[in-house]
């Protein structure tokens, strides 16, 4: 404690409350983030993941740039008037219904720039036919921002153009800190890619303004973001600058959240802030102006025992907490565990309550679609969960966190874009119903998900593994089985390399080639996923006391080759009983499967949305190699027939049936069920319908 | 058409649009309402229903009067300031959050007066120890109202005391017409009981004001009630006055609802009305200011194909429609059928979405409790359903409508008050969860349910049967098997009598004694409920071509005795497959059963809220005579054991389990399940927990 100050300290600012900061806690820069490491890994473009990335670098980035131009956000930093601002002008600039979509435009631009910089950093990204256009757009946008920045450092379109007086007066609703955080992450990405400090310097100036204005000091506003994002971005900045003020600010933003401030009459900040505005409006997802659950300020993080509210806000907050000191890291683990154990779909989808785009209050409320009472599973929430997993893994290897990260990536996240790179999902329901279909959309008024997807795919090399050198031992922790090569820069200036070839996510065959200069050795941790059967490792791993749950440990010489094989038989998964669902999900390895009408035309025509169809729990499946777009994958066909629910028995009011008399409940159809990977749904037709989990047919229930 | 005008026509009012009125449709007064007929039936006080009514006449009415005094509503018509008005004063009288509870005070007073008048009309009610106090209160309240009435006829506390300028300017939210309707029903009841016209004349003056102000005419406001109630009340008034303006007004109020008015620029009335107020606020249950589903103005009734929104509003509207002409009657039938077939619990509970106190958009969304995604089942909604059933039966006998009415009455409605008459339910969940218990409440801020219950119980004789004489034939349609005697006034001035003794709802043994003067005969319709087995009628009924579905028809001489017997074996009911619930409800006759912790202490201690417990669908039950309070009833004990869900198998992320390998899902416990009638729940202890529907255990799923 106390020896952290280095570099300039602004004399006009209250000193950070350093006594709260635990110097024994690992600092973020000691656990390099994918944003800092991704460029060291080249992903094999012919591999599964490589092919997916190509869709992003060659198609998605361009689609998104076009949409930004079309939507108006691209031009927003020119500070002209856009007709979409009119609705707020009529409302006197007040947020009276909902956060208007134009509020987020700054972040949309930021996330696009960030993603573009990631792809421009990679060999495969550099080959994009749109490279010149992207570079030109980045330069143009940064130039706009430089001109748009106010003299005090403030950078934000809405409060520069529409509501000048309202600047930084409604942190709860107006997303200024959210936008700042994304612009900051973009600036860091830009700096790393280009070496240029132009954008970064802009953001440093804005951050200085925010650090001066907000904090625990007597003359500061005790505010924090309504939508968490700035906290984690500032910690990414800290990893770059090593400026303790940046760490302290990130810590403050997380630790202050939800406090009932004595200096504010015992009120939480947002309630006090609304009073200053004489504003009685509260967000539609809040029960009252004091209701902090939606934005996770109902209590300080230490006192939150269950994850609540808007899922992306919650998980961005947890991401930041997982990069801070011991107690906040514990809070992060507790809330993340509640999320993944009690409030997550098998597809890695998170958030079952559409009205609040977030969590049910109670555990195990996981309706698969609108007719079951909800299902949201926002793409951004699964990405956020990956971010938490990665930070937790950076502290401590865990098979559980790894499996969750992979499950999110290969199902809910990967499915977020069509395989032609042109359309996207915001909501990822497990089943359609009524008049719904499973189509993706060209774009969204609130378009946070597509650019979030793109930057995640841009960072993919950083999610693959982490490497750290201590003395002469290179530690390599593998997160994802992928095909790629990583250069490890050694302190001596020499380089080592790890190269993995893997047939995952379709087959367990993997080879890992390690090369280091003489005198070095490797300490490698290899995942043994929960779904892997007959797991074989060559050379054999260390004795079990060196194992981490879900991981095998190997101590290897400078030049080594490791072979891994494992099987992934199809398995049927039952949800927790408290979901009140007696259903089955079908998985093979990390891939969860879904049935779409495209492959099951006759069956689904007779049973719209596959409603009323069930599977025996003894159902087995045949694997079918297939391809959608240019992505090869494995499909499944059931070897047994599907069953349909029969309602036999005397009917009563309320559409109920008298049971008994030995009448059977399920009748066998002459139909098999054809399944595709959930991420690959809705790529081959429009207007399709789907179902992911099917009622379980008990053996005694069939004719 | 056109010959309906009789009595005075206000020259300052636009003529009613009589051309829209179908003169061939039966008028409400041709189908006398329970409010008009109840007093002709004396219910046997020693019978089940009689004992229940005694709780109301001797306890509930008094409890409610005390609560009205305590709450402030009793004094409200003195027009003094009440502290509870302060919150609205601060808001400038505007409805900014929700309809403040004080808005409904007028209706609470009205419903209490109405109920008191019903009980004071009956022999059993007259015996109440509080009779003098009730009569005194009625007189006092009427005197207050006489003084409180404005010179133009307006009668309403809120807009006389709190917001004078806002009178009749926000029909959508401010419940003025709702209050008026209930006061009108009270005035009719008062007149019938006392012969006095004082109260009725007050209300006639108010109705005149409303008929002048609102209507289809060029100089009229095209408004209708935000909360339906006035429509059906005005039709009750019409039955009394036979004044065609009253019928036309009721018809207008229903038919105008949801129209996009050309004279209002194509807007629906409430949108136009809000613009006049320069008011952008809309109710929390609406998606936008144009969203009419909550209040059923999203389209004219003819175009509404599914029942939506707030369930009491919807069903009061349907009640009124069922008393109007052919097309509106068809609309009523369509929406009522959607309600009872697709959106009703086996307990007769209606409304699964707590946030809107109403219907799911989709059919068969019937979560049993909070952890399943909802369940509201407001007491008032089941009462409203009974009201619709009765009106439908008044048009045409139907076993279905009768069964529904009885199911609502004997389960969700009857359970609305504790058997000691002191506490009430607003919400009637089928299962508790989390920190909930099944306790009733002393009162509610919005206390519509208790007085609604009381007036329904006061009217019970009118729900029992209906009688009509044509020539020398007395038609008697039995609705409910009860013990009571009805006098039928014949056109000649003579009297006939029907006396029923029934052991229902516990046993099917019923005797019906009919006595008419010489020369008369009876045409009797006896229910054959859907749950009745081995139904025997003596004398035998007419040949089947005279049958109505669910009814047996008898032609009988002036002096006759009919004997009915039927069995009611316990039956297990499965919900519709589209509910996604594989559960069982337990019923015996019209009574649905529930398990409470009081009778199942050991079992429920180990499985809180009976969570995770299931029943074989072959479970049989032993009947156990019991008594709660002074009400004898039949309880049930399962003859087979209860099962608990076992989670065996490899666990995976997201709390899922890999299935297969022949592991069984249910383990047998050494415990039977004890059940009580749903209406009788929560009478013997505080803090209890309950469950009504249990997962079905398939035979192949047990060890």
From TrEMBL, chains A, B:
Coiled coil regions in record: none
InterPro entries: 6-hairpin_glycosidase_sf, Beta-AFase-like, Beta-AFase-like_GH127_C, Beta-AFase-like_GH127_cat
Domain Non-reducing end beta-L-arabinofuranosidase-like GH127 catalytic: 45-457
Domain Non-reducing end beta-L-arabinofuranosidase-like GH127 C-terminal stretches: 570-687
Pfam families (alphabetical): Beta-AFase-like_GH127_cat (PF07944), Glyco_hydro127C (PF20737)
Family annotation (PANTHER family): DUF1680 DOMAIN PROTEIN (AFU_ORTHOLOGUE AFUA_1G08910) (PTHR43465)
Name by which UniProt lists this protein: Uncharacterized protein
Originating organism: Kwoniella heveanensis BCC8398
């Amino acid at each position: 404690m106390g020896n952290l100050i280095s570099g300039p300290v602004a004399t006009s600012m209250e000193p950070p409350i350093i006594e709260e900061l635990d110097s024994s806690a690992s600092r973020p820069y000691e656990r390099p983030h994918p944003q800092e490491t991704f460029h060291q890994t080249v992903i094999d473009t012919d591999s599964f993941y490589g092919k997916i990335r190509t869709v992003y670098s060659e198609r998605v980035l361009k689609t998104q740039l076009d949409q930004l131009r079309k939507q108006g956000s691209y031009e927003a930093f020119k500070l002209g008037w856009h007709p979409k601002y009119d609705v707020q002008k009529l409302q006197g600039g007040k947020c009276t219904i909902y956060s208007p979509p134009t509020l987020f435009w700054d972040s949309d631009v930021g996330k696009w720039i960030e993603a573009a910089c990631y792809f421009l950093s990679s060999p495969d990204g550099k080959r994009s036919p749109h490279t010149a256009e992207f570079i030109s757009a980045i330069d143009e946008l940064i130039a706009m921002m430089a001109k748009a920045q106010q003299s005090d450092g403030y950078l934000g379109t809405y409060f520069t153009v529409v509501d000048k007086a309202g600047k930084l007066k409604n942190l709860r609703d107006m997303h200024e800190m959210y936008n700042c955080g994304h612009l900051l992450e973009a600036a860091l990405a830009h700096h790393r890619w280009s070496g240029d400090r132009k954008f970064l310097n802009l953001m440093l100036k804005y951050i200085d303004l925010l650090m001066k204005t907000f904090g625990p000091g007597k003359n500061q506003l005790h505010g924090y973001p309504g939508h968490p994002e700035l906290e984690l971005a500032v910690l990414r900045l800290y990893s770059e600058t090593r400026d303790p003020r940046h760490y302290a600010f990130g810590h403050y933003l997380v630790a202050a959240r939800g406090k009932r401030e004595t200096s504010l009459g015992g009120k939480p900040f947002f309630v006090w802030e609304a009073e200053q505005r004489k504003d009685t409006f509260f967000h539609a997802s809040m029960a009252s102006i004091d209701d902090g659950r939606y934005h996770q300020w109902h209590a300080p993080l230490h006192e939150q025992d269950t994850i609540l509210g808007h899922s992306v806000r919650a998980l961005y907050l947890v991401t930041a907490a997982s990069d801070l000191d011991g107690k906040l890291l514990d809070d992060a683990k507790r809330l993340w565990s509640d999320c993944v154990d009690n409030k997550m779909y098998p597809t890695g989808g998170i958030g079952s309550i559409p009205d609040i785009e977030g969590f049910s209050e109670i555990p195990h409320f996981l309706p698969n679609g609108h007719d079951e009472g909800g299902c949201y599973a926002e793409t951004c929430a699964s990405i956020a969960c990956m971010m938490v997993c990665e930070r937790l893994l950076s502290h401590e290897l865990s098979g559980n966190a790894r499996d969750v990260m992979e499950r999110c990536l290969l199902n809910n996240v990967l499915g977020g874009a069509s395989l032609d790179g042109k359309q996207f999902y915001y909501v990822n329901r497990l089943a359609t119903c009524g008049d719904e279909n499973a189509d993706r959309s060209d774009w969204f008024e609130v378009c946070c998900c597509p650019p979030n997807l793109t930057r995640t795919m841009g960072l993919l090399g950083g999610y693959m593994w982490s490497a750290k050198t201590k003395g002469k031992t290179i530690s390599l922790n593998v997160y994802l089985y992928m095909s790629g090569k990583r250069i490890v820069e050694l302190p001596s200036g020499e380089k080592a390399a790890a190269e993995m070839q893997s047939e995952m996510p379709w087959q367990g065959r993997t080879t890992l080639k390690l090369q280091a200069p003489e005198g070095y050795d490797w300490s490698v941790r290899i995942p043994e996923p929960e779904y892997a059967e007959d797991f074989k490792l060559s050379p054999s791993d260390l004795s079990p006391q060196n194992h981490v749950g879900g991981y095998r440990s190997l101590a290897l010489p400078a030049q080594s080759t490791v072979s891994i094989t494992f099987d992934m038989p199809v398995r049927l998964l039952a949800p927790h009983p408290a979901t009140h669902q007696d259903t089955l999900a079908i998985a093979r390895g990390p891939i969860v499967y879904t049935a779409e009408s495209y492959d099951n035309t006759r069956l689904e025509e007779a049973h719209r949305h596959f409603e009323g169809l069930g599977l025996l729990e003894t159902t087995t499946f045949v694997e079918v190699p297939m391809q959608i777009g240019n992505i090869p994958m494995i499909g499944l066909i059931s070897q047994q027939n599907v069953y349909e629910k029969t309602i036999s028995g005397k009917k009563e009011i309320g559409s109920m049936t008298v049971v008994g008399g030995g009448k059977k409940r399920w009748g066998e159809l002459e139909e098999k069920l054809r399944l595709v990977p959930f991420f690959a749904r809705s790529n081959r037709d429009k207007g399709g319908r789907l179902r992911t989990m099917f009622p379980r047919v008990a053996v005694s229930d069939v004719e």
